[in-house]
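User: Okay, second chain of the day. Same drill as before: sequence in, structure tokens out.
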Amino acid sequence: MGYHMTEIKTRGTWILGILFFAMAAMVMAACVTEAVPEPEATAFPIHVDPDTGIEFVAVDRFSDDAGTLMRRSENPDLPAPNEPIDYDADFLDHALGPGGEEATYYEFDVASFRSAPVYAFVYASDPTRRVAGQSAIFDLIPGEDGYNDFWQVVRVLVPDDFEPGSIRSLDDIEAAGFELERTGTIINCPIVPYGSTARLADRDASGWYKGKHVSYFVFDVTETSIVNPGALDVPYAVVRVIFEDNDPAKGTKEDPDTGESHNVFDTLPGDELYRSLWRFDFVDEAEFDSVSDWESSKAAREADIDMDHVLVNCPIVVWPGS
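Assistant: Same drill. Structure tokens below.
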């Protein structure tokens, strides 16, 4: 596939340890009353579309407002504000599928179970026909209340004479008075700084955010049976995780001979119940040698780690037959 799995695994394991160490640090910090000085503001670099001259909105996924486990204040080695992120180099890891298959995935941060709305344009005369040339509209970016990597598609019904590209914000949609139709579709689209790369994503694209361009990756789409609902809860699956010495700060336990983890996803893409939002369950590290697939992980003794119901966005991008 063009990358070195040993290198990827080492980086991914380190990142996973940092994530859960950061969570533990946040819990302890909640008990401290002494004021902590705010870090000095960092100027965001400006990126401009060379063809249109339109600016891309600045994005920082690792600020204290945007990050839950991946925070620059806890790990200064994370990319700077609005710096392009190379997800293939630093946020790609692998585990096991339910039958013991090797599964490669990207690591994003904790995600909410409550979806956010993204606005996609279709013709009112034929809602199955998308409006070519009109990008999707986002009204939230990382760090803003209500942001989520998982978006519920809201269709914007426009007339046949609609001019593509003329709408660039939610304010524009509301001012035009177009009919809105919520759907049961949820799409995993993390918003990232301009120039970020994840070559195993389904695609990367740009949309609009309050009159500026915004970059995002596209991963899986989940279709629910709900018709014209309100805001949807995001369905999730389960991954069983084993930490070295049952200590999240030490990262995922690895086989000393192969460098492989025995973490196990309960589904793979293509399975009916596959989801890229995962709840972490924890297996006692003493059971490591006995775990080789989902059934053996379920039979293994669980670890007593006080991090219940952690939901993390980890889209699987390589699996057998992919």
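Residues 116-223 form one domain.

User: Thanks, on to the next one.
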